[in-house]
Amino acid sequence: MSKLAGKKRPLDAGEKAILATKKKIKGTDEVLAQVDKLCSLAKKEPARAKTLAELHLPQACREVIEKDADAVLDEVEASLYTVAASILRGEGFSYDVPLRTKGNQMYVPELDRIVLKDACGQRPFANTQTNRKAVITTRVLGLVHELCRKRIHVTKRDLFYTDVKLFQDQLQSDNVLEDVACMLGCTRSSLHVVASEKGVVVGRLTFREDGDLINCQRMGVGGKAVPPNVDKVTEIRSDAMFILLVEKDAAFMRLAEDRFYNTYPCIILTAKGQPDVATRIFLKRLRDVLRIPVLALVDADPYGLKILSVYMKGSMNMSYDSSNLTTPDIKWLGVRPSDLDRFNIPEQCRLPMTDEDIKTGKRLLEEEFVQANPAWVRELEIMVTSKVKAEIQALSSFGFQYLSQVYLPLKLQEGDWI
Amino acid sequence: MSKLAGKKRPLDAGEKAILATKKKIKGTDEVLAQVDKLCSLAKKEPARAKTLAELHLPQACREVIEKDADAVLDEVEASLYTVAASILRGEGFSYDVPLRTKGNQMYVPELDRIVLKDACGQRPFANTQTNRKAVITTRVLGLVHELCRKRIHVTKRDLFYTDVKLFQDQLQSDNVLEDVACMLGCTRSSLHVVASEKGVVVGRLTFREDGDLINCQRMGVGGKAVPPNVDKVTEIRSDAMFILLVEKDAAFMRLAEDRFYNTYPCIILTAKGQPDVATRIFLKRLRDVLRIPVLALVDADPYGLKILSVYMKGSMNMSYDSSNLTTPDIKWLGVRPSDLDRFNIPEQCRLPMTDEDIKTGKRLLEEEFVQANPAWVRELEIMVTSKVKAEIQALSSFGFQYLSQVYLPLKLQEGDWI
């Protein structure tokens, strides 16, 4: 065993400051009191957010919903009966395809997300402009029918390879696949075409995936890979008080190894950087079923905020599916620009922002989801004025476990989220 | 329920060909007979490969081994006692650091891997050339001591952030960290500095990770994330006959969803592209403990082979650690260039190789690990002569489940690996 391990030396000024911060942290119940209040608020919200239909907007809008395999089979068949009827009426072979262009998108403040307006395009077979697309649409409808019938899931790449001769390149099959989702009024994952997942989860959560009982409190340090097919996830149960959404896997690993969730009951989820569709759907599902708050831990830079915006607002080109992909009410816990001074992050751990960073920061300041929250505006202004950024790992300069033992407990205790 | 689902139409020529191939597949026992032979061979191998020491090479060589936290603490303290003794002798403050440069590397055919020769460099404190590096080395030794004492794991990035002022950029702390691993004669993961993992695993495997019992047969479709710290993995148990190493997550998902491992007892592992250190260590550990063959399923392109070479040979800059990172005896199951004709992969699923691809292919042809296996040389020659490549997903052109229901069973039945 180590012979030097027991030796003590007097603390320096920096170490004394860390110790003083650490002493502020009270017992677990007191740390969790603020979270508990937030949690009660979340539980009091209506069981589900309003749907587009319930809003009775003057303008007709379109959104997709999750449908099970049988419902999708019915939709595919219905769309082909419609086409057949049109042919029999002598009006020819043509699809009605909802437009997904920016001109057909609309921000709905009541829902706090973007939806599609109801404009549709014709896709007739007997037209040189649309002939190929009509054929591809038919083929994709056929493939989706096969997938739903066999109850199997594939990736977009697999779909492309079933008929390379027709699709020519993957962009074409991907694009028509999104069209088909809109046409059938269901999410892309309902079509049994899924994204490959990058995310991992640990903490106070159990669920069944394809029948297997998964206990995320017993998943070691590596965690459970996020399920690629959320329709195979059932029986979600948890005694967590909040979901901790973490940008990076290094921070995830620290919290998983320290079993942070044992002391502070939570579910820890990361997409390891830019969030993929599977992780976004999974987060949304957890939030809806458990109705507990989501607290985010991201880098104090424009990219960290961009990641939050993807979770909260989604991306433009999948706006028709925003209700299933977005979790609007995420709280920004840290690392926030104001934390750098508050926690005395050393100068050398603060990185200068590039011109590109500053531009991105300024663009974010103009976005609706930031402007809707004055506290976010203040933080972003600190960032673009001070022109410095910092990673979550900057907290390691106070010791490897500062994140799990000091920073996060103090943040929770003080209810310091915005 | 679907109304069109039951309708039948006559098969076309392509479908008849697929059906004919499918009919070749016999019962599970017959499919597995060849694998069983390979498995017996693997079990008959000596319990562990020869070590460098047992070879009694004329030239002194150096390799690192996995050590537990207490052993690393002892090594750190011993290295500092050595330095202290040197100071007391009036010979000054200096470290002996093994050289990791190409000139100090050597291929050992008996081990089939690269190791370090025994050249060392001096790193004196009282020299303007090495002063900074000597200080950084001391700091890293101190940090490693702390990690092993606290029994916690961090990433290289965390390590860098503990003293940004000193390290200046992460390359410097990363580089010295590798030096320290060589100095102490242990792997980098023994220093409790780990890589973030990307890999996932499913199949006939149970193990404990940090005490948690993990059953990879009950991990849904998403699978279990590969543990980042292999030293927390214990009690590895399996009734699998082989490990199926898969390049891409799309193929992994197909096999996981089809529960391929239920019919053909195996462990399915993927690093989702370029293999990370954690997945390589995990594969090596599985292979050593279970002593079952490893069959690889990669794209039929030079990049797929590059990935195999990383699993088998490792990378040059971590050659001191090759014994813990490499799994030399991987069998190339598919997709092989000769499969394209054998399985009648349609022309449009065969992609033209770029000039860069062809160059990479030709470079691989000259590498020792390829030349050691004439069957591999023949396959690579087919690739660079035909100038076409194909992805695993090209098999989807015969149907989404062709991979799991036809291609792999037939390959296994025929013992068609090289």
From TrEMBL, chains A, B:
It holds the Pfam family TOP6A-Spo11_Toprim. Mg(2+) binds at residues 247, 299. The active site is at residue 161. Its EC number is 5.6.2.2. GO terms for biological process: DNA topological change; meiotic DNA double-strand break formation; meiotic DNA double-strand break processing; reciprocal meiotic recombination. GO terms for cellular component: DNA topoisomerase type II (double strand cut, ATP-hydrolyzing) complex; nuclear chromosome. Keywords: DNA-binding, Isomerase, Magnesium, Metal-binding, Nucleotide-binding, Nucleus, Topoisomerase. It comes from the Eukaryota. Belongs to the TOP6A family. This is DNA topoisomerase 6 subunit A. It comes from Elliptochloris bilobata. The gene is TOP6A.
